Amino acid sequence: MELDIVELSRLQFALTAMYHFLFVPLTLGLSIIVAIMETVYVMTNRPIWRQMTKFWGTLFGINFVLGVATGITMEFQFGMNWSYYSHYVGDIFGAPLAIEGMMAFFLEATFVGLFFFGWDKLSKVGHLVTAWLVALGSNFSALWILIANGWMQNPVGAEFNPVTMRMEMTSFKEVLFNEVAQAKFVHTVSAGYVTAAVFVLGVSAWYLLKGRHIELARRSIAVAASFGLASALSVVVLGDESGYSASHTQKMKLASIEAMWETHEAPAPFTLVGIPDQEARETHYAIEIPWVMGLIGTRSLNTEIAGIDQLVETAEQRVRSGILAYDALMDIRADLNNIQPDDQLRFEQHSDDLGFAMLLKRYVDDPRDATEEQIQMAANDTVPTVWPLFWSFRIMVGLGFSFIALMGYFFFMSSFRGMRFPKLALQAAVIMIPAPWIAAEMGWFVSEFGRQPWTVDGVLPTAMSVSALSVGELLFTLAGFIIFYTVLFVVEMGLMIKYIRKGPYMDVDTTDAWMTKHNNRLATTPASELAPAE
């Protein structure tokens, strides 16, 4: 197997996944914000909220359609570029994706149409239910996809069958309630909520700077700031849950994120900044915060977090154990009609480490023929490249805390200062619009790159997962995907900018008439007689 094919396949899937994830977070969050706005409209019967729902709903619709287009092509890649992976784990990985298509995507797609074309055909409550079902479908879709992805990170509820040479599901309940999948889901959707909140806040701030659509912008900021503050705080709390989960499910990923080369005496410190040196196995100019990593990773003061060097030693032991599993597997395969109990017992004793023996396939056709040097090389391969993980994680965390500060400020100003926003604050909100996407992409990079060299952690090496394609075929399809996805991205940006500049164009007369009447009432009625403020 040529390593070039593996790297090109990884690059193609990485690019398409990162492109797709430009659309996903906004879809997740904006669907909820739109449903909240319509809820306020149904409760108050004020046309301004109906106009807000339609305006932000239009931007949601543009993003949703283009997100679907990029997501569908991703799923085809499992069969095209990762055929052995699909064969090896399809029984487990395929189930959540099938449920996502049947349950979540059809729910979402069906009610999206009713949302856009049912304003004059459904009752207010009926249309509100439709809006919430669209939001529910969007989030259900993320749930099942992340259950599938979470299984790749922590393969529970499945075992290898030496007869079929495939992984087979043993417990759907374990797959469904996989702790990594659950942590990834709540963390990812919360990040999507933050993305939408920052987007709505930034666009609304731009309107205020331009002196346009003032009433829509002020109310939108109020919704975005409150929703965004809760979401940003949730992201930090749920990110802590992901760190705790990784401490016992993906120890190498956690150690690499922290650039923790040696096991530190408990409680381990958190390295705020530094320059990881993988060759020297040390982090230069490290600035550490005592105890923090130990508290995040173990939620205790007396539990160690294993360092990279110790984990490599553990990996070497598992490679050796995996060779025994591979030897037993070959004996079983030699006569499937007459499996010897001793061979079956040997395999069962070491089957959990079979994937580590497969790491040797990069260096030798038969793992049983591996030299001591090759075994050590395979063990070292379990360490991903540290410096990109180290810095991607810190960029993500730094942006996460900046979102809390941004949302906290606008929540305070909108709730307690009569929505009097300084020009500098509004400009900062506009500048911050791309930041959640950067944080989300960094998060996905940490999650997926940190799992290397595995497609399924500890079970199937990435180098074994690819299809039998040529370099030329991969280069051709890679170029095609880049062109196709770039065109979609340009279309997305063009349409979003067009409709943002256009502003709310639906229900204008009704909303303006109501706002005029409302403002006249505020101006002529004594404060003591006014109804409670919105």
From TrEMBL:
Chief location: membrane
Subcellular location: Cell inner membrane
Membrane topology value: Multi-pass membrane protein
Family annotation (Pfam families): Cyt_bd_oxida_I
Alphabetical UniProt keywords: Cell inner membrane, Cell membrane, Electron transport, Heme, Iron, Membrane, Metal-binding, Transmembrane, Transmembrane helix, Transport
Species, as recorded: Marivivens niveibacter
Record-given protein name: Cytochrome d terminal oxidase subunit 1
Family the entry assigns: Belongs to the cytochrome ubiquinol oxidase subunit 1 family.
InterPro entries for the chain: Cyt-d_ubiquinol_oxidase_su_1
Molecular function terms from GO: electron transfer activity; heme binding; metal ion binding; oxidoreductase activity, acting on diphenols and related substances as donors, oxygen as acceptor
GO CC entries: cytochrome complex; plasma membrane
Membrane-spanning residues: 20-43, 55-72, 92-117, 129-152, 185-209, 221-239, 391-412, 424-446, 466-491
Gene Ontology biological process terms from the UniProt entry: aerobic electron transport chain
